[in-house]
Design goal:
This protein is an alpha/beta fold. Helices cover about 35% and strands about 20% of the residues. The strands form 2 sheets. Strands 3-2-1-4-5-6-11-9-10 form a 9-stranded mixed beta sheet, sandwiched between helices. A two-stranded antiparallel sheet has the order 7-8. Helix 1 links the parallel strand 1 and strand 2 (about 35-40). Helix 1 packs antiparallel against helix 10. The longest helix has 16 residues, at about 220-235. The radius of gyration is 18 Å and the shape is globular. The structure holds beta-D-ribofuranose (BDR) and calcium ion.
């Protein structure tokens, strides 16, 4: 699975987003294990302009100035963008004022840049795609440049659920935001690890831990604390009362610490009808075929210990 210098090549496709921000922080703190080739943005938690601005600020803030940020799809394949302002704030980052940056997008044509960067990997090296937003860019990449599949080791994504949803009773936000794209990705024949609500609602920080972050003298810890305080207040109905699920960070911690998680093999189909079930991930247990590895267990104390230690290291 490892590539150059024994690190895993990854590409993050995101819509920051408070928990996307923590996933980026985890990536910055995992340089010994992960080689981040680039970051693409997709409209989801906020508009393309906002999430792209946030990705630029966040990569700079977490010391990843050298990492290219490219702009992807301005909206889902079929339906309009419906930002999750109530959950992530008007700015997408819980109204946490991050420093401005002079950094600019490397390319306005996100999927073309992704394609050329991935195809330029040396023979024998591949990339793990890490989508933490709607799957629009990934679907367009695979549909436009199917030959890129040979350079993709697997997809470790945040999205979906084998039971209920968080944006509707049936659907999880990232899949609900672009069900057609999600169906294309699940049907692409690539190995997928699904970090959906089955595991992410069990993977979070308690209010007291967030308050400690807010009081930190280190700016990265403090900023994450401020964002997560907003997120906790906005999502109190999800999962445990005083714990905020840090959905997107599960993808990165799974890559660096797979021993923290357990799961099962399933096949996934996405409900793309326009009824109440739209965006549901229909998961069928498949003990014999390895198609999607659905995470459903986490060692929470270890998850919290590692996440907090990595934030402190920034
Ligand atoms: C997912 O939806 C978004 O709001 C979060 O950033 C995360 O990717 C959780 O359902
Ligand atoms: Ca996200």
């Amino acid at each position: 699975m490892n590539d150059k210098n024994n690190k895993i090549n990854i590409w993050i496709d995101c819509d920051p987003g408070i928990d996307d921000a923590v996933a980026l922080a985890m990536t910055a703190a995992s340089r010994d294990a992960l080689h981040l080739l680039g970051v693409s943005t997709v409209a989801g938690n906020q508009t393309s302009d906002r999430v792209t601005g946030n990705a630029l600020k966040l990569t700079a803030f977490f010391g990843m100035d050298d990492v290219p940020v490219v702009r992807g799809a301005r909206g889902p394949l079929v339906r309009p963008v419906e930002p999750a302002e109530d959950i992530h704030g008007a700015d997408g980052l819980g109204n946490c004022a991050l420093p401005e940056t002079g950094k600019n997008v490397t390319s306005e044509s996100g999927i073309f840049y992704m394609y050329t960067r991935m195809m330029a990997l040396p023979d024998g090296e591949r990339v793990t795609l890490v989508p933490t937003g709607p799957l629009t860019n990934i679907a367009l990449l695979l549909r436009t440049f199917p030959e890129v599949k040979k350079k993709i080791a697997r997809i470790v994504l945040m999205g979906g659920s084998s039971s209920g949803g968080n944006v509707t009773p049936a659907a999880e936000f990232n899949i609900w935001a672009d069900p057609e794209a999600a169906q294309m990705v699940f049907a692409a024949g690539l190995p997928i690890v699904m970090c959906g609500l089955d595991v992410t609602l069990k993977s979070g920080l308690y209010g007291s831990q967030i308050e400690t972050l807010c009081r930190s003298s280190r700016r990265a810890e403090r900023a994450c604390g401020q964002m997560l305080r907003f997120y906790l207040d906005a999502t109190r109905h999800e999962g445990e009362e005083d714990m905020v699920a840090i959905h997107d960070a599960v993808t990165i911690l799974y890559l660096t610490n797979p021993e923290l998680f357990g799961g099962r093999n399933v096949t996934v189909n996405v409900d793309c009808d326009w009824g109440a079930e739209r965006g549901r991930t229909i998961c069928t247990d498949e003990s014999n075929r390895q198609s999607v590895y659905l995470l459903d267990q986490v060692n929470l104390p270890e998850f919290q210990r590692i996440l907090l230690a990595k934030l402190k290291s920034l």
